[in-house]
């Protein structure tokens, strides 16, 4: 895949990877990452999609991977800017620079949660939401809910006090996060309505209600974050989008644990990736 840079509306440069198939071009897919996950995590799945005839773009949000500064303590960015600025920059690049439209937006977790911030969603044909869920800690099963409670009330604030940013690599939760992102994410996850209360402050309009692109929400049965309660609650953020919710029973397809991020791992190429292809092509 070709390394490129995409410039957001505020001038911030985002690191991205882009590739097109040589033959049988069938469409375009953006893979929009989960919180704290670098674009390289999705490369194997991206190459699988390219082999199926799709042009694919991967990118890092500001503050993550190739889009992060050398010192996160110098960064003042907020998580909502992944939607208001970064996602819009990626879509604009594909439409204006590559001349593409009817784009499939495959969002993993937060990568689907924030699509309501897209200013020109008419260029999106559909959204495939993977393990995207309302992140309120109290809606997670025992005992994980109390571990997440510890993260937000003790571990997270302590990280910021000691290091000046969220040192998520120390607890195995993906990439490190700038302090403002940690504080905003914390505020969302301690609220039963997640980031709904903050939308009016950020957008000053009910933009998510104006999002009418079809969404198919897929979640794995062994993911404690995306569960029977949190996935439907997240979909309520998009009341005017045609929606389908699909629960993927992991035990029917593999003996391995899939969880929140595992579905994109290469070992599931033969048993789970074809299921995702069915959703993409439907």
UniProtKB/TrEMBL annotation:
Keywords: Hydrolase, Membrane, Transmembrane, Transmembrane helix. This is Alpha/beta hydrolase. One of its GO terms (molecular function) is hydrolase activity. Gene3D superfamilies: alpha/beta hydrolase. It comes from Dyadobacter arcticus. Residues 24-152 form the Serine aminopeptidase S33 domain. InterPro entries: AB_hydrolase_fold, Hydrolase_4, UCP037442_abhydr. The chain crosses the membrane at residues 41-59, 146-164.
